[in-house]
């Protein structure tokens, strides 16, 4: 005997609520697990940034971008780590700072002056506490970013809870970012803040653009994101928003550049960083064997080209990928879904495309960089009722699902091992996730403009 429509609807609502409650519990477990992982993380990247920021602040290294100064920092702060740990063997065994100093053989000042300014201002005398708090900040930033992107895409609570659980517990780039103590999750929440503010009042739009400018100064490889957002807004008839993006972004960038110059006490510090950067990115430390999963690095190694050619290969990839993504924005397949997507959904898509471009056309991309794929993955798996053929939807879900499987921690033992194979699988996962969003994209409509 079949149920009446109202009874079926009631049963559906009850089942949905039960599944949502289970997903929320799963997300809570994942958050607790990630919090415990943070207590065990060694955070070698964090140690480098903390040392350089602290050294500039206390006067040990006014200009860390000179080779002589950076070579002096490792033994100097190695001695300070021993003094910090004291003479008690048990305290030495538990000291995160001592362990990080022992593993670190060279301090490499590869990041921007603004990044070291932020780390220097946040640093205290208690390294272990600083590292733990940085990890906790990263976990909260990741959760906040996923929640914000989910709300902007109008995802149901069930989907948001599942994305939170996946991001905290099983997404390998996020777990890697937690383990090394890098800044990918903080970048992600800054992008989410921009997406939220970009649809608000004029003052909020200006502030959101300033956040994006600060992010570019923090991690200059993220400059691709505002560029692609500007391209996307132009192609979808939203040129009136470009002025706010340009003015706010310029203000945020200028304030960050000036702040770093004041912190270092030298207005030319940015020029010296730019002078040192090619030497660092062309070194063997950025080879595939060290974990570089950039497509340009993989192609250069397969073709037998030197590490210095990775930048040229990345530049050759940039324009074709930019054109492909621009076409995906301007002329997406299918008709406008009914109901149309929320106005902010296109902004999330543009941010996701920009992040993908910064990863796929870069000379350097460690696995933790790929945490920036999350917005585009959420776009690819959004619930919708488009008028596109079922075959296209299945192709998008298949490509996106395979891409996430290649980037998931539980599938890692089943995948081929080795430096080149591992890097190739990460790059392939990123390419497949991007392809999924291109195959079945968010279609611009009047609601987006």
| Mean pLDDT figure | 90
Low-confidence runs: none
Relative helix content? 55-70%
Largest sheet: none
Question: Which radius of gyration do the C-alpha atoms yield?
Answer: 23 Å
Task: Write a structural description.
The chain has about 450 residues and is mostly helical. The protein is built from 20 helices and no strands. It has helices spanning about 5-40, 45-60, 65-85, 90-95, 95-105, 115-120, 125-150, 155-170, 170-180, 185-195, 200-220, 225-235, 240-265, 270-280, 295-300, 310-330, 345-360, 375-380, 390-405, 420-440. Helix 3 packs antiparallel against helix 5. The longest helix has about 35 residues, at about 5-40. It is globular, with a radius of gyration of 23 Å. The model has no long low-confidence stretch (mean pLDDT about 90).
How are the SSEs placed, and which strands pair?
Layout: H1 5-40, H2 44-58, H3 67-85, H4 89-94, H5 96-103, H6 113-122, H7 127-152, H8 157-169, H9 172-180, H10 184-197, H11 202-218, H12 224-235, H13 242-264, H14 269-281, H15 295-302, H16 310-330, H17 343-360, H18 374-380, H19 390-406, H20 419-439
